[in-house]
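Dig into what follows:
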Amino acid sequence: MDEDEGKNQEHTQVFDITTDAAPQNGSKCFDDDGRLKRTGTVWTASAHIITAVIGSGVLSLAWAIAQLGWIGGPAVMFLFSFVSFYTSSLLSDCYRTGDPVSGTRNYTYMDAVQSLLGGAKVKACGLIQYLNIFGIAVGYTIAASISMMAIKRSNCFHESGGKNPCQISSNPYMIIFGVTEILLSQIPDFDQIWWLSIVAAVMSFTYSSIGLALGIAKVAATGSFKGSLTGISIGAISQTQKLWRSFQALGDIAFAYSYSVILIEIEDTIKSPPAESKTMKKATKISITITTVFYMLCGCFGYATFGDLAPSNLLTGFGFYNPFWVLDIGNAAIVVHLIGAYQVFSQAIFAFVEKNTRQQWPESSFINKEFKVPVPWSRSYNLNLFRLVWRTGYVILTTVISMLLPFFNDVVGILGAFGFWPLTVYFPVEMYIAQKNIQKWSTRWVCLQMLSMTCLAISIVAGAGSIAGVLLDLKVYKPFKTSY
């Protein structure tokens, strides 16, 4: 009996110690989930969003506005900015499952889909994400090669005094970009390098600002705004081409606003209280406003400068503008940005494939074994044969596809159309409905579904226009022989 009482007293004592311990969410160092305390604010979140949004998509906005005109272009851009803001607000409410203050945290977009939707929708979301990332890698390869060619051609033109037409093939530059990516892809956790996001932000603002500044300078020099209310006129192109190009422009603008897949990750950096969703909504409003103003300026001044002849890549359209080194800096900034961005985006595919192959073949030395390779003046490098072969093959595949389809504008349109509806609209809407337990056929449910269906229709026509653009380009294109 005494022994039993002793056990009971011991059990009670242990229980009391547990309940008296300070909870982790009251800790100065740890959050409610035991991880290190987050320190993000509305301003850091806004900066992350702006850095993520403003990228190579800005280069095609002048062309997009040229297809839609002074009325349609800005109107469509405002439409996409509003939809992006609204669906981002819905998505921010899905950061925690259940209670917005104390519910379980979802650390990634896929975590939120898994937690709130589950089942086949998780696999569908994953497939769309990975295909989109692969397409982005192709698009970045094309864009980087175009910028490298622009630098080479600009310098060639000035060295020859304008006598040499300087026709250049894109293939060597795609190969150079591909070889660079093969080397960088072997660096473990490349996306975790602390200074990478700083470099990306500086580079993206550099080339975007140069494009904007050159547009303003050109308009100021000529004293006139080119363009028309309805965009490129029929006659310069056929009525069918006008239709397809207008649709493709929707995809280009959609691509410029694609950042939903990383919104949850950004929200996971925000400290609480207050609830992360409240801070995130403020950050989204600030960042989308700044981004839209910047996009409007870049797109509109680009269109005002070139009119119907607005190029698909803004910085290649200024020709041999003097001082030409300004354009060289802008194009070099694009290349540097895209070299890093390619790796950051591709890390998700790398991790997914490598994790699943390790689980599938845990005994395979080819997949799992790492060899120590001595590196002078540094720590030894862990070489994994599967990682070497698989990542190299991935980069080669994206490079070959880029060489086969080197159509920057068309690829951007396809990517924008493919990713906009499912990732920016459909999944956020469905997760929000599940999170808030919105009744089917209620007014709010119907409105959300109407928004989703409208955006699906926009994605379909944008995709059709972009595919039509590819087919038109293929009529005059000779594989591996494109020159600029």
About this structure: The mean pLDDT is 83. Residues 42-475 form a domain with the Amino acid/polyamine transporter I fold (CATH 1.20.1740).
